[in-house]
Design brief:
It is a single chain. By secondary structure, the chain is an all-beta fold. Helix content is 0%, strand content 31%. The protein has no helices and 6 strands. Strands 1-4 form a two-stranded antiparallel ribbon. A two-stranded antiparallel sheet has the order 2-3. A two-stranded antiparallel ribbon has the order 5-6. A hairpin with a 2-residue loop joins strand 2 and strand 3. The radius of gyration is 16 Å and the shape is elongated.
Amino acid sequence: AGDGWFTLWTGVDAPGTYFFRGEWERLDHAFVAVSRPDAIAHAAMRVVTDERLLTSSGTPRRYDSRTGYGYSDHLPIVVDLEFGNR
């Protein structure tokens, strides 16, 4: 990321949000752009690993259109932002 931009993957301990060919990928991102260093007091991201979204092996429970069962091949992310001085 460039000037004023940073990725929220920093500090996230999840291996990724997408599992493909036996490997986790970090395809899903959240970027924050700030014009002043004090604009954001706190920014964090987490990967949702609710057991309903996962297979027994811990990978995303992909949606199967034939059975109507499953969710997505990507795990969702949640972003928490706390704004500082405005």
